[in-house]
Design a protein that fits this description.
This protein is an all-alpha fold and about 80 residues long. The protein has a single domain, classed as Orthogonal Bundle (DNA polymerase, domain 1), CATH 1.10.150.120. About 65% of the residues lie in helices and about 0% in strands. The protein has four helices and no strands. Helix 2 (about 15-30) packs across helix 3 (about 35-45). The longest helix has 22 residues, at about 55-75. The protein is elongated. The model has no long low-confidence stretch (mean pLDDT about 90).
Amino acid sequence: MQRAFLEQQAFQCGFCTPGMIMAVEGLIRANPNPDEAEIRDYLSGNLCWCGTYSAVIAAVQSVVVQARAETENSRPAAH
């Protein structure tokens, strides 16, 4: 998740980053495939003075897409 935050430039001053990462880690554990509304809901308690919300959402979505691809690639081939 930290790497995704860096890659999506979702972390500027760093003040909100720990809370954002903890919130989305909890979200991913509860629901490994959240939609944007669920991501926004989980982040609603975290205030970002830099306004990086769209980048944070993009970071979370990139982690979800990557995890989904890894899961699909690890499944045995159907016969």
